[in-house]
Structures are given as C-alpha cells and as structure tokens.
UniProtKB/TrEMBL annotation:
Residues 112-138 are annotated as: Disordered. It comes from the Bacteria. InterPro entries: Cell_Proc_Reg/RNA_Proc, FHA_dom, SMAD_FHA_dom_sf. Residues 122-133 have a biased composition (Basic and acidic residues). This is FHA domain-containing protein FhaA. PROSITE patterns: FHA_DOMAIN. Residues 25-74 form the FHA domain. It comes from Posidoniimonas polymericola.
Amino acid sequence: MSRITLRVLDGSDRGTVYQDLAVPVTIGREEGNTVQLNDERISRFHIKIQDDQEKVVLTDLESTNGTRVNGEETQLRILRYGDLIHVGRSVLLYGTRAQIAARLEELRANGTPIAEDLDPDELARRAEDRPNDESELQWSEEEELRSTLHIPSPPDVPVGLSPAQAAQFSEILEYLHLRVRVLIQAVAAPKEGEAVEVTFENWQELLDVQSLLAEYLRKIGEPDSE
C-alpha cells in the first residue's frame, strides 16, 4: 500500500502539509474525506487518489469545477512526484522534498532537459508571495512551474491487458500512427533554419487527429459518460 504526502501551496489551507497518508485518499470540502479543504469551489468529494498496478492514480469524481494536473484538465491521471494538483482555488504539490529531489536526479541522469531547477521550498515561497485576495491563479500560464518536473516523456505501455484489450489498444495506436505518417509524408523537408508549412487541408487533418485523441481520453477517463 502506497503512502503519499500532499502540501497545499495555495488556497484557504495554504501551508498545510498532509504527510504519509495511506491510499486510497479522497479530497473534498465535506467531512468524511481524508483531506478536507476549506474551498467553496471544491466539490463535496472532488478527487480520489489510489493504488492501481503499482501506480498512484488520481481520479476526478465528476467534480463541478474539474481538476487540473500541471495546468491540464484531467479526469484520470498517473501521479508523479512534483505534480501540481489544482482543485478549485487550491493547489497541492504531490510528494515529499526528498521524493521530488530524487525524481529530479533521475531525470538528469536520463538526460532529460529540465527548464529550471525549482525546489519545493521555492514553489512554496512563490505561493506565499501571492496576494491573499488573488482568487483566480493562472498556474497554467506559469511555464516555470509547469516545466519544473512535468517533463513530457513517453509513458509506459500498460501491462496486464487481456489479448482482446491489447489488440484493441494496438489498433488505436496503429490507426493514429498511419494518419500521422500520411501527414508527415505530405510535408516537403525544409532547408535548415526554414519553417515548415502545411496546407490548410493537412492542418484540418491535424486538428481532427487532436479531436479524436481528446475523445479517446474522455472515454477512458469517463467510461460511463455515454
């Protein structure tokens, strides 16, 4: 069973540290949650954090105002140390200082480019510098916060799929691969330093692929939404 640490960087409960919580953990504004936050924009039971296949997974519990991780809207997300969880007006940092420092070292060892090394204390200081009456924090626009640890690296392929599930997953990836390959082949290779231009038709194709991916993400995150 995993045990997690959450630190509130902003919101009414700013500065509170929830240490060594045994999962599953629920977060919301009502009594009965593992973490009860004093935030009127948070749902009664807003998110759940639990173990699944040796991963720590965040699930949005059909909250009214939604959940963002590292500035991105999400319904279902594998958490990594250093992730910023935004619920209502509250922002929580996932992981202890030691866990986040270890992840930074691992990223450096793997040669992953890190835009800026901000330690958790610096994140907390930035939150403390915010005016108390600033109700709408635009964390998604703070590139330093978003790029500190949320490095876009390839995720692991899920394990434990049944043969039918693996075949279906493979079909989805192959379909997307073929569509992207056609679009890439339609672009003439530019000279060094020149910008790549795509036709309007290909631009619409790219938008359609993005739309399809968004639909897949929604169906996976909210399987009962249809």
